[in-house]
Amino acid sequence: MKIVVDSNIVFNAILNTQSRIGQLIINGSKYFDFYTVGLLKEEIIEHKDKIIHSTKFSQTQFNDTFQLITSRVIFVDDILLTDQDINKAIDMVKDIDENDVLFVALNNHLVANLWTGDKRLLNGLKVKGYKRILTTNDLYEIFIEKQLKNR
Questions:
Q1: How far is CA 9 from CA 20, 82, 96, 150, in A?
Q2: Are 40 and 7 in contact (CB under 8 A)?
Q3: Is residue 7 a contact partner of residue 43, using CB atoms and an 8 Å limit?
Q4: pLDDT band of 24, cuts 50, 70, 90
Q5: pLDDT at res. 78
Q6: Confidence label for 135 from pLDDT (cuts 50, 70 and 90)
Q7: What's the rounded Cα separation, in Å, for the pair 137 and 143?
Q8: Is the pLDDT reported for residue 134 higher than 80?
Q9: Alpha carbon distances (Å) from 26 to 22, 62, 64, 99, 103
Q10: Containing domain of residue 135, as a range?
Q11: Which of 70, 75, 122, 135 could form a disulfide with 38 if both were Cys (CB 3.0 to 4.6 A apart)?
Q12: Torsions phi, psi for 118 (to 5 deg)
């Protein structure tokens, strides 16, 4: 199952690997293929000092956590997205949050499911009839089902 993760999911996983989100990224990678936009890796690095400050990570702990989480996610360069992918995404998010254009465009491009914790984006897309979207609880239920089937 292809899952596009937005920035809040990846940041949450880095901030707390023991959280449900962190554990879904780490342990869910055996059932799900996680994707995100390539620019997100740069954004994480830009916020490295804030992450270290808020988590009290050492430089080594940050590097290890960054490697752990980003190794479970495929970062896709936005140049691979077509104009059609981007224009469709712009139409979908223009009155919700334009910062989410690339995530929705990637989701459309991959014909995946978008995993977000952003309630505004989630509700805004649902109102527009966008069905390929998951909450953390949705994904957790799917994860548990897959775990139980593999026992």
A1: 10, 24, 18, 26
A2: yes
A3: yes
A4: very high
A5: 87
A6: very high
A7: 10
A8: yes
A9: 6, 16, 13, 26, 20
A10: 2-149
A11: 75
A12: -80, 105
Beta bridge partners of 113: 3
Measured in whole angstroms, the distance separating CA 77 from the mean position of its chain's CA atoms is 15
Residue 142 CB partners (closer than 8 Å, separation 6+): 1, 31, 134
| Helices and strands (H, E) in the chain, number of each type | 9, 5
- Residue 16 sits at φ, ψ, to 5 deg, of -150, 95
CA distances from 139 to 1, 2, 9, 29, 30 (A): 11, 12, 12, 12, 13
Exposure string over 123-133, b if 16+ CB within 10 A, otherwise e: ebbeeeebebb
- Give the CATH number for residue 10: 3.40.50.1010
- How far apart CA 112 and CA 34 sit, in angstroms, is 10
